[in-house]
Amino acid sequence: MWLDRKTSYFNRQHDIVLMNPLFAGAPILFVASRRVVQQLLGNEAKLRLVKPVELTLQSLIGDSLASASGDAWRRHRRILSPAFNTSLYSLAWDEASVAYEEVVYSEGWLTERQFDVSSINHIVHKFSLMMISRCAFGIPLAYEEPTSNPANPDFPEALVRIIKDFVLFAIVPRRMFNLPFKRLRIAKISWQKVESEIKALLRSRSSQESKAGEDNADILGRLVSSSGKLELTREELFADIFTLMFAGHETTASVITTTLGYLALYHQEQDAVAAEITSVVDASGNISFASMSNLPKLQACLTEALRLIPPPLFLPRDTEEDITLEIEYPEKRQIVVPRGSRIIIDMVATLRNPSYFPNPDVFKPSRWLEDNHDPDAVMFGAGPRQCIGRRFAQSTIMRFVACLLRDFEVDALTLPGETREEYEERIMTNATMAGTSFTLQDVPLRMTRRIK
Ligand code: HEM
């Protein structure tokens, strides 16, 4: 999807491509059109689309909000939805500033006026993990990497290790973790540690007469109280915590990395965003939650970053009955997708489709500020299953980037003799899957403090 992005869908001329297997297997419909995506995801229940569990984390962690379909999905969503409210977004906004200060302090960014960061990715990855742990689950994860013994890790270390080794967990069968290989043994110990800590956390929350069950309870509170009423089993509870942990931090880290990478290259955009941020900073240097809506240029940069490097590379669905879709390109017509087909919504192709996004490979945040722009382009999905963490992510990302651009100017850290165009080609198209998200690989930046 990524490597062939400029030539796939017959040089970006077709809305869909249907692959019919010659001998066995289901037909696969690849989708590259926002309008088709809306027809599918906007009518998910009516069309009886289901998530193919083998393309989710189900085999690893069990049934969760992200992997379930039908009534089971409705139950998870009904329990979790009320926890995603303004109090959570406001908490994320405030906590992102606290966590940002920890990053600045721990990385020693205050000691020099100008310095180079070889990869911003690792820094924002740790930041976003702290954010979801603290805001959603009350786990006080610190920025400093823990240094304890890998054979007996503490909780944060075990968590970081699982995340780093996530692919291992996804592909190696559980029984193989008993084999005498050091990496597998440490992975297993880490998994057990995280599992037991989450269970302990759940026990301690269950025994508290906390706010759980009220609409303003935090995410963990909602999950614990629903488990008490037997709405979610312990296994489902565990799976939801894991899902939110992963869905919540890798995606966020990817967007921050892409945004900073592009702003480091496009100084005109960066200057406009920095001026916008300055206009909302109060006398004490603070940026209030209320001013989030006064940062449209920053918001447009994040949206454009999401369009160019979408953290979920594709959204899969299976059909249980024949469905009819209207396509527009190369010509308007109806097609019937037979039952038993797989649908793959190709996010890269959809978000770089020239019919909707002229000059699709160019970073152009202003396209999101035009009068007729679509505020609901599909980066966060569409319809009833669209991302539950959207506003939490936006709050976190906007606050982090706003704090960083308030304090620093970012510049592309080019190689000797390298032009900015060459940097853009080398760094901003070097994307891959990391864990469960699609993301740029190492983005090196030069940072200069604004206040001398
Ligand atoms: C910029 C960051 C993010 C992006 C781009 C993103 C994108 C998406 C997309 C496209 C979907 C729809 C998947 C589908 O239809 O198959 C989705 C679903 C989901 N997202 Fe996010 N997400 C982000 C951040 C978050 C955060 C911070 C959380 C948790 C705090 C989260 C939790 C979830 C969950 C649980 C689902 C499944 C919802 C359901 O099936 O009802 N996401 N996300």
UniProtKB/TrEMBL annotation:
Q: Which GO terms describe its molecular function?
A: heme binding; iron ion binding; monooxygenase activity; oxidoreductase activity, acting on paired donors, with incorporation or reduction of molecular oxygen
Where does this protein hold heme?
387
| Named cofactor requirement(s) | heme
Q: Name one Pfam family in it.
A: p450
Recorded hits in InterPro entries, A to Z, give: Cyt_P450, Cyt_P450_CS, Cyt_P450_E_grp-I, Cyt_P450_sf, Cytochrome_P450_Monoox
Q: Which UniProt keywords apply?
A: Heme, Iron, Metal-binding, Monooxygenase, Oxidoreductase
Q: Does the keyword Ubl conjugation apply?
A: no
Q: Supply the PANTHER family for this chain.
A: BIFUNCTIONAL ALBAFLAVENONE MONOOXYGENASE_TERPENE SYNTHASE (PTHR24291:SF50), CYTOCHROME P450 FAMILY 4 (PTHR24291)
Q: Which family does it belong to?
A: Belongs to the cytochrome P450 family.
Q: What is this protein called?
A: Cytochrome P450
